[in-house]
Write a structure and sequence with these properties.
With 427 residues, the protein is an all-alpha fold. Helix content is 83%, strand content 0%. The protein contains 16 helices and no strands.
Length: 427
């Protein structure tokens, strides 16, 4: 089992590294092909985008992974019970998006150009949900290669689509460009689903009886998924309100909407991507950690060992990455994005973002030990505090630094609360 955990982590890490590199290339192509206005609009709707994807997935991949890893249910029964439920959730979300898009764009974001990009998000949600469910199945079986390969091919396809079509679309203006960039995900997610199907077991024969929806299975999945995804939903609600509170507060004290949109665009398009380069490693580690701990919930020594390994690796990777980013900020911005915007923000955040990578192993361990409700409470507390500190510090006439300070406070508060709980459980 130890070898399987290490092997799964290595496969995911290599695949995630390649995916991250391809993702970076996509970001480079995007930022160099489109205008600053396109980047700003895309950054403005990103919190809405993240929230809607979280609602569409509803924590199902992790729940499916847990249940299949514990061998509680027949795999086919799990898949064919939850897919109809997921599609129903997506239909409801699509209707709500069409109804709420005018309010979100005009009233909350105060930018009418955001309407059509928000509508575009609705069309990609079912495809993302379906590929996530299939991914959860393979995670539960600890078969990481299908996920790795599908991610790589998906990113290559997305890169090719962007290289071919994005330059031709930019001439139609900001709204069309951003909307098309979002809709490109439909093709890439379809490719991902097709790749997964190639790796279906040879004995995976679908019978008529398999297509029956099992209420007990749905309840079991939802029992894990809802508390787990509650944390992500709350976190994404906080992220959703971030530009709204920032825009409201800074406008209130005299900053122009153009300044706010531009600086927030720089923060999301240039600063965060550089500071979160090691996220591919942390994601791979956490994905392998959940089924591993789920299998050995009663073995405290093994859990402590796996958690300790994960924390050490996460910290070292985060430290090395952020030291490099801090020292070579200007060069990296120029090479990657062909810009010098955001240098001061990166220098300010880099020393603190080293600790960001400890959050993942702690949260994954708590979720695998069935303490998803606790992580939800932590997320509620830290999200409320983050939004309050964002509002308070933004009133001090320090521009976007109010957001940066609230981000730092949030990192350390989450770490403290999660570490305190794990220490009580394991020591």
């Amino acid at each position: 089992m130890k070898n399987k955990f290490i092997k799964s982590t290595i496969i995911l890490m290599i695949g995630s590294l390649l995916t991250k590199i391809l993702g970076f290339v996509i970001k480079i192509v995007f930022t160099r092909t489109v205008s600053q206005n396109d980047i700003n609009l895309y950054s403005l709707i990103m919190p809405t985008y993240s929230l809607l994807i979280t609602l569409a997935q509803l924590g199902l991949p992790l729940a499916i992974s847990n249940i299949i890893a514990e061998n509680n249910q027949n795999s086919k029964k799990v898949l064919f019970s939850i897919i109809p439920v997921s599609m129903l959730i997506n239909i409801i979300l699509i209707i709500l998006i069409f109804l709420a898009a005018p309010f979100i764009s005009n009233i909350l974001l105060k930018n009418k150009d955001a309407y059509y990009p928000i509508i575009s998000i609705a069309f990609i949600l079912p495809f993302i949900s379906l590929s996530s469910i299939i991914r959860g199945y393979f995670f539960g079986k600890q078969k990481m290669f299908p996920h790795t390969l599908s991610n790589i091919i998906e990113q290559i396809a997305r890169l090719l689509i962007i290289l071919i079509f994005l330059p031709k679309i930019t001439k139609y203006g900001t709204i069309i460009t951003v909307s098309a960039y979002i809709l490109f995900n439909i093709i890439s997610e379809l490719i991902s689903i097709i790749i997964f199907l190639f790796f279906a077991p040879k004995n995976f024969i679908i019978k008529k009886s398999d297509l029956k929806l099992d209420i007990h299975v749905v309840k079991e999945i939802m029992g894990i998924a809802i508390p787990t995804t509650s944390s992500r939903i709350i976190g994404n609600i906080g992220y959703f309100f971030e530009p709204i509170i920032l825009t409201f507060t800074l406008t209130l004290i005299g900053y122009s909407s153009k300044f706010i949109l531009n600086e927030y665009g720089i923060y999301n398009a240039y600063v965060l991507p550089l500071l979160t380069i090691p996220s591919f490693f942390i994601l791979a580690l956490n994905t392998s950690l959940v089924p591993e701990i789920s299998r050995f919930k009663n073995n405290k020594n093994l859990i402590k060992k796996r958690l300790k390994q994960s924390l050490i690796f996460s910290f070292l990777i985060g430290l090395i990455s952020n030291v490099i980013v801090y020292i070579f900020t200007n060069d990296l911005l120029k090479i990657v994005f062909d810009t010098n915007k955001g240098i001061e923000y990166i220098k300010f955040l880099a020393p603190f973002f080293v600790f960001l990578y400890l959050e993942g192993p702690l949260a994954s361990t708590l979720q695998a030990l069935n303490y998803a409700k606790y992580t939800m409470y932590v997320t509620i507390i830290t999200t409320i505090i983050k939004l309050l500190t964002l509002f308070a510090f933004s009133l001090l006439h320090i521009g976007l630094y109010g957001l940066l300070i609230s981000e730092i406070i949030n990192i350390f508060l989450i770490l403290y609360l999660n570490f305190k709980k794990i220490y009580k459980l394991l020591y």
